[in-house]
Amino acid sequence: MKTQEQTWQAMRRSCLDIIFVVQAKDDAGILIVTTALDIELSGNPAILVGINTDLLEQINGNVKTLHPSMNKTYVKLYDIDAIQKNIGDMQNAFLFAHAATGSDKTSAIYGKGKIKAYKLFQKSVNLRSKVVNIFNSPTSHPEEVASTGERCVQALYPGGVKFNNIDDLQLHLYICTVARQALTAS
Predict the structure, then answer these.
(1) 95-122, pLDDT tens digit by residue?
(2) Do 160 and 98 sit in the same domain of this protein?
(3) How many CB atoms lie within 10 A of CB 90?
């Protein structure tokens, strides 16, 4: 059975005449996205091939993404432009949700993944609009960014917004965890 690397190499060799290939020495995410956008902006069709779903959140415009399956039974072609039109104003909260719930560059919040954040922003229009206004504005004050980020983290936990700050929520979660462990340990 071929390894993933062998499959990619075979695919690359067969497509070298028609495909523009760029290889990153370090973190490839930004290079991949900017290269695809540059190609698309030059008027040529761009199809981004990758197995990292984080690419779907970072790309925009008319770039298509091809997502091969690890078990090689199917390949998905995503039309990013169509996805963005279908999700409406949720697209403006995607980068924040991506960064806040963990990516190649940021640590994840334990037990709180991307789907939970997306569902939170779908449900809470007020929180979503606040996040979009604060985090997408270069003129936002650092205190405003910090307090909005705290509110988002608190909202990821059931009843989290009832606490005055993230420290109180953290203490509450710690006490609950210790209490559960004490009961199961005896």
Answers:
(1) 788 777 876 666 777 778 778 888 888 8
(2) yes
(3) 16
